[in-house]
C-alpha cells in the first residue's frame, strides 16, 4: 500500500534486493502506474503470472522501459537517466497470487480507461 517511489528509489530497493520489499512485491499481482513527472503522461501496466510485481518492476530498473513500445522509444531517445530523473512508480491495486490473470488484465484495462492513458499517456493498447 501507499507505494509512491521515484525510479532511483525503486532502483536502490531492487538492486539491494531488500528482503521485505521483495517478499511483499513478488507475492502479489496487480496494476501499477508509472507517471512521467516531466510532462504528466502516465503509463498503466500490470503484473500477473507467477512472478509478481517485483519481477515486473525489476525489468523496468534493468531497461528503463520494461519493453513497452512508447517507453522504449522515450528511453532510447533520452537514455535511462530520463527514467531515473522523471519516472515515479505507484501501485493502483494489488491482488493475491491466486487471482486469475484475466482479472488482472481486465483491471489494467479499467485503469487505462479511467486515467485515459491511451489517449493522453504512454499506453497504446
From the structure above, extract its key features.
52% helix; 125 residues; four-stranded antiparallel beta sheet; alpha+beta
Describe the protein in words.
The chain is an alpha+beta fold. It is built from seven helices and four strands; from the N terminus they run E-H-H-E-E-H-H-H-E-H-H. The protein has helices spanning 7-15, 19-26, 52-63, 69-78, 80-86, 101-115, 117-120, and strands at residues 4-6, 28-36, 42-47, 87-96. A four-stranded antiparallel β-sheet has the order 1-4-2-3. The longest helix is centred in the last third of the chain and has 15 residues, at 101-115. 35% of the residues are buried. The model has no long low-confidence stretch (mean pLDDT 96).
Amino acid at each position: 500500500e501507499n507505494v509512491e517511489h521515484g525510479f532511483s528509489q525503486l532502483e536502490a530497493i531492487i538492486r539491494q534486493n531488500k528482503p521485505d520489499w521483495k517478499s511483499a512485491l513478488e507475492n502479489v499481482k496487480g496494476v501499477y502506474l508509472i507517471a512521467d513527472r516531466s510532462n504528466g503522461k502516465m503509463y498503466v501496466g500490470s503484473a500477473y503470472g507467477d512472478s509478481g510485481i517485483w519481477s515486473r518492476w525489476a525489468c523496468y530498473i534493468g531497461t528503463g522501459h520494461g519493453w513497452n513500445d512508447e517507453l522504449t522509444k522515450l528511453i532510447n531517445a533520452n537514455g535511462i537517466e530520463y527514467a531515473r530523473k522523471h519516472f515515479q512508480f505507484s501501485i493502483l491495486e494489488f491482488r493475491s497470487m491466486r487471482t486469475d490473470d484475466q482479472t488482472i488484465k481486465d483491471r489494467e484495462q479499467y485503469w487505462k480507461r479511467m486515467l485515459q492513458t491511451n489517449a493522453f499517456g504512454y499506453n497504446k493498447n
